[in-house]
Every structure is written in structure tokens, then in C-alpha cells.
Specification:
The chain is mostly helical. The C terminus is likely disordered.
Length: 312
Amino acid sequence: MSAKRVVSIRPFNRTTYAYEKLHVCTRCGQYTCLWEEECTSCGRSALVSVQQRAGSRVKRRIARDLFLAIIIGTAATYFGETTDQTMMAATVTLLLIGWLIFMHHRTFPAQRNRQMKRMLYEDREEIRQGINRNWALVAEARKEDEALAYEMLREIGSLVYNDRIRLQQVALLQSFVLRSDMDLQLQPLLLRSFERLLAEYIGEIARLKPELIREDAIRYIATYEVNILQLHNGIQILTAVAAAAVRKSKYIELFPSLITRYARFMPKDRFMRLYRTLELYPGKARGGLAESVGRVYNEKYRDNLADVHVQS
């Protein structure tokens, strides 16, 4: 097995909506979800966000409406037969232009969103092709810089929900020396079937960043417990996840069987947290969890804690 590499991974720029990752070239129309400064198709520095592209289209439509209003108003003013008609036409024109400016300014965000949805739907094939081109670039980047390849896959994965992309990310992550100060993620990488690399990654995350271990990850581990036990470090993975699960009483209530089986292997601080939680909330204990935790406590910690109290 090859040694893991020490790498530096840039923090992930999280967006409210996935489409905010997309950029499009205003020259050739190619889409990308990466951070290129130049379009990989035409080589021009003409990449803008999809929001900007949609906003530009709306602004052009607004400019067209204002231009038409000015032309019509100017014609009406010019062809007025009397002074009153000319003044009336000019007044109406100014009021119309003012109303158009006010309404478009007020509704611009909504118009931009509608235009963007229309654009994303109409250009769905171009978007697919652009993301496929991004994916092809990952193979090239991986030869020279695997950390960069992972960062690229992370961007693609925020738009494409594909187990193959998720597994590629996990495989790269498992080839790195992971640290608690890294911007790691777990939820977006969960697969629909059992994969050894993912199970090992979840176990490592449980030790490094237990706050990332949430219900879906615990459920994945519980579902494939038998498969994980066949791994050389299966007990360690299951214990780490069970220990991370005791952070919240909700998970103790949801996964009592898993926690029961691995409670005795937990680090002392994790086990004592579980023990005190069950003391405070006895209703959280199901399926013999309280009895099992009580036996482990009596066997491993009761006498030690009593000695500590006597000495103090």
C-alpha cells in the first residue's frame, strides 16, 4: 500500500445554490463549474457567472423597452398638432419612462431569476458538455497535482450527484494525510452502496472531526456493519462512529444497538459522556443500552473513579 501524501487543500467555497458555481463564456457560450480565468474552449477572458449573464440579458431587454418608449414618445411629441398635444405627449412620455424605470428596478431580481431558470433549461445540453469537459481535465490534473484534482472534483460534485464522482473524491482523500484543520466534507460523499474506502474515510472523519458525523453517515455505517467488520480495521471504524454518535442524545436514541455493541471500546471521555447522558435522559436508552453501559461502567471505570474520589 502506498504511503499517504501530505497535501494542502484550499477551503471550499460553499454557495447557497448549486447553480452559483456555474460560469459561462460570453464569447463562445461554453459552461464551466471550475475557477478558470480563461475559457478553455476559445481562450478568451470572457467568463461570467450565470447570474451575471442572466442579468445582462434582462438589462438589454429593459434598454430595448426604454428605447421603444423614447422613440414612440418622441414621435408623438414631434407630430403633435397643437402646443397642448405636444406638451401632453411629452408629459406622458416622461411619465411612461419614469414608470418603466421604477418597475424594472423593482422587479429586476425576479426578472433575473426567471431569465436564469430559462437559460439553464434551454442550455442544459451545453451545461452537460461543459461539465464533462471539466471532468476530463481532472484526469490531466491528477497526474501532476492530486490535491488540485480533488478540488476540481469537489466543484463538479457540487453540481453533479454521481456516485462515480463521489468515489473518486473519497479515493483521493484516502490517499492524503488528513488533518482536523482541513476543510473536509462527508455528507456530499455518501454512496448508495458499500465501499471500503468510504467506510474507512468515515472512520477517519469520526476521529478527526466528529461534528461531521450525522444521521446519514451513522445510518450508512450501521447498514453495512457486517461488511465493515470484515475489514482489518473494522472494529476501529465502528467504534469511532459510535463514539462520535454519543455527541447528541438524538443519535443515542436512534442507534442504540450500534452504540451498545461498541460502547466498551470507546475512549473513556466518550464513554463517560454516554454514561452521563443516559443518567440525565434515561428515556433515550433503548434495546438494553442502559444495562450494557452500566455493566461496562462497573467493569472498567467504577472502581477507578472511586479511587480518584478517595484520594481527592
